[in-house]
Amino acid sequence: RREPLALINLKKKNEETGEEELASRLDHCKAKATRHIFLIRHSQYNLDGRGDKDRTLTPLGREQAELTGHRLASLGLKFDQIIHSSMTRATETTEIISKHLPGVKKISTDLLREGAPIEPDPPVSHWKPEAVQYYEDGARIEAAFRNFIHRADAKQEEDSYEIFVCHANVIRYIVCRALQFPPEGWLRMSLNNGSITHLVIRPNGRVALRTLGDTGFMPPDKITRT
After folding, report:
1. Which of 137, 149, 200, 224 yields a CA-CA distance of 20 to 30 A from 2?
2. Using the 8-state DSSP alphabet, how is residue 173 labeled?
3. 33-222 belongs to which homologous superfamily?
4. Higher pLDDT, 15 or 178
5. Which of 199, 174, 173 is nearest to 187 (CA)?
6. Nearest-10 crossing angle of helices 59-74, 88-98
7. Other Cβ atoms within 10 Å of 225 Cβ, number
8. Where are the chain's structural domains?
């Protein structure tokens, strides 16, 4: 709901000023700033854990998070906030990254938790969740997309830089939706642990993908996808 025409009640147009007033009201509702969205996949974690609390980062995963935090800090940007999935592996990744970005507030949300966003096309043989999972997770992940991925508010004066630490399925789905690609193709992309995906949202609503799953800042022996 950031398109200026969607924010105005066109029925209330002043009869005297007409189009002139409409243009003025539209200008008042237009975004002025660019949003930079950095989507970070959590680091490597213990796959043998029974539940979420047991699926903590591995020693290598903690190294990866340190490297990602160092990379983000080296960009020299003034980050506004870090929003992260409430799952253990994403929370731990956030805590390590945030040490490199002192003063940046952290916000936890259930919306960004891992899940099955939509049935992939083409299907894969090694991963077949129950149909109900797509309905439950899909609605939540779509809500995350609508809640977080949009043009800047008209009141925002300066460009913003935001970090989202979450999961591969969530990031891949968000990228497809943001670029207006068929979301069923989300599983055709692969993301390394601790990777950085950079989306840019312009004031006119256009979205560009600067990087997808970048781990070029990591030594080859530190790169994993599990």
Report:
1. 137
2. H
3. Phosphoglycerate mutase-like (3.40.50.1240)
4. 178
5. 173
6. 50
7. 13
8. 1-30, 33-222
